[in-house]
Amino acid sequence: MEDTPKIRQLRSYLNLKARITASDERLFFGTFMCIDKHKNIILAQTEEFRG
């Protein structure tokens, strides 16, 4: 099965630094690892900050 364009785009983000803003205004800085089956973003070596 061939990857879709969206899957290819997600793969291009692997191991890149990411900044995520949560709905409660917390900031997460870490390395993008994957998205789980519930569409949660998984980061490694992450730091959390209050906005």
What layout of secondary structure does this protein have?
Blueprint: H1 5-12, E1 17-21, E2 26-35, E3 41-50
Antiparallel strand pairs: 1-2, 2-3
Explain this structure to me?
With 51 residues, the protein is α+β, with helices and mostly antiparallel strands. The protein has one helix and three strands, in the order αβββ. The chain has a three-stranded antiparallel beta sheet, with no helix packed on it. The longest helix is centred in the first third of the chain and has 8 residues, at 5-12.
Share of helix, binned: 10-25%
Task: Give the C-level CATH assignment.
Answer: Mainly Beta
> What would you call the structural class?
alpha+beta
Beta-strand fraction estimate = over 45%
User: Remind me, CATH topology?
Assistant: SH3 type barrels
CATH architecture: Roll
The number of helices is: 1
Return the average pLDDT rounded to an integer: 95
Query: Assembly state here?
Result: single chain
Strand order of the largest sheet: 1-2-3
Indicate the low-confidence ranges by residue numbers.
none
Inertia-based shape = elongated
Brief sketch in words of this structure:
With 51 residues, the chain is of the alpha+beta class. It has one helix at 5-12, and strands at residues 17-21, 26-35, 41-50. 16% of the residues lie in helices and 49% in strands.
